[in-house]
Amino acid sequence: MGLQKIEFLNKKGNFVRDCPGTKNHICCGYKNIDLIEGCILSCSYCILKHYIKEEKIKINLNVKSIIAEVDDLIEKEHNHILRFGTGELSDSLALDRRYNLNRPLIEYFGEKKKAIFELKSKWAQIEHLKPFLNPYTVISFSLAPQNIIDKEEKRTSPLYKRLKALKKAQDSGCFVGLHLDPIIIYEGFEHDYYWLIEDIGRILDLDRIIWISLGLLRFPAKMMDVFIQEKRKNLLFSEFTKGEDGKYRYIKGERIRVYKTLYDLLKNKNENLFIYLCMERKDVWKESFGININKSEDLITLFDKRIKYLYGGMI
Amino acid sequence: MVSIEEININDRSFCISYPDYNERLTASIKKIGIIQPLIVKNQSPFVVVSGFKRLKSAINLGMERVPCVIFDITDIEACIISINENLFREMNLVEKAHSINMALNFGFSMEEIYDIMEQIGMGRHENIVRKMIKIANSEEMLKDYIVEHNVSLKNVDYLLWFEPEDRERIMNLTGKIHFTESLLREILQMLTLIKIKTDDLPYEELNALNSPYEIKEMLKKRINPGIKKLEEEFKNLVRDFKLPNNVNIKIDPFFEKEYIDIMIKAKDTSELEGALKSLIEPLKSKDMEAIFGLTKNRIPE
What we know:
The complex is a heterodimer of chains A (about 325) and B (about 300). Chain A is an alpha/beta fold and about 325 residues long.
């Protein structure tokens, strides 16, 4: 794959989208800011490749309009603490040092003090942001065993660098988020995840992890052909079924087993960790975590409580 | 008329036709001769540009001379004539692949290749060009299989994924049974998955099966052992309820949805009452609970 071209846009609006969610699945009510569309990293399972047809990476330069749109949403919201992120259609940090894209947003959220801004990444470079970080920005990394990073997450930072960057962010006064997503079931994955969680417990301050998401691999049906063509043994190792959204997922029983195992391992490290499932059914929530989440609103309320618990009167 | 001896019958540089022999054409030539002359390139010996099937029929019929139009043309012009001569008939996938491969070999630009693809009803995409080249250069057995079973590009793509040895065995297996395109696709996809997961294919078991549906079910069992087990459990549980014909319990085939559907067909109150009564015993039994457990993928002990 050659170097991707970068295109700078000066769009006028529609920068913020609700996470699209999935019918009959619990959604956390996240707001995506489309600051960048496209990614220079090369994860084999990436569904961006499916959604974004263009090879070009588009960067929206109209930060003033983005902030105006975000501000409007925050002001209109009276029931919940909104959470925004730039890591949906791209990696939040992969191009950040070169183009300094997130800094105005970090500063805006720091001054606003009414919502959370999350930078979600697999690219462990936050040095350039450290002087501007504030508690309203959450630095998050997708974490996976090094085995998977080596084989399926080309061009991304190794695990130890991601954990080190998270630690730096914590030391700079930020809360951090962990995304164990996608979790891939391959031969020996339990062992690798056990040690991943050991590393998390050893390196990070668990009281300063704002949230941990768990999400097993899922992908649009068309990606199955891509995985087959590329002979992705790790990705195709376990048994899949099709969800109501037409996406392939591991069969429900397997999902429950894996979520429960990881939940227990994490909770054994620290009972207070806030762990949630990304785009799962209510019965999977109940069976895996023993929690009744009947609709997306229930999960959004849990997020509100979590943020209030950590920020107290500061938000 | 040109003597066949003056034609280089082994030079197939401009040959698109596949297969290059047609019994009906031979019968027709035997009866009324070659009506439309071959096109040959003026060099010594002559090179056929168009008319490979006619030439082969003539040779098989023992003819010594064939009618030809002799053109003083370059290779590229010969290539254009060959493709255009074939555009007026329905080409099979192998012939389309030959056209594109030939144009590439004679140095056509990508834009020109895309134009040809459009004319033969293919999408303008680099990926498709790559696949067509693979087909054009593939083994005879695959080409015969594609033509005989009118296989789609998607399914050929799956076949090309396999090493030639596996491909041959798969073609032997699927060639003897009639598959619809979609069923063949499902089966090929499952075979690729099994190969990726186990690095092996269950030929012995497959060869013992005679219908496409048996093959599909057998492969499904390998690919989706969990779902198959749930299906079997569900069938067993519902069968034990001994419900009347107008009551039907349905579960999501992917065992994802949290609920089951109970369908009752009734044309009057007594039928409805009978149907509802038939559900009372199952409701009291642990088996109904077990069915709800299956929606969570719980297999009863």
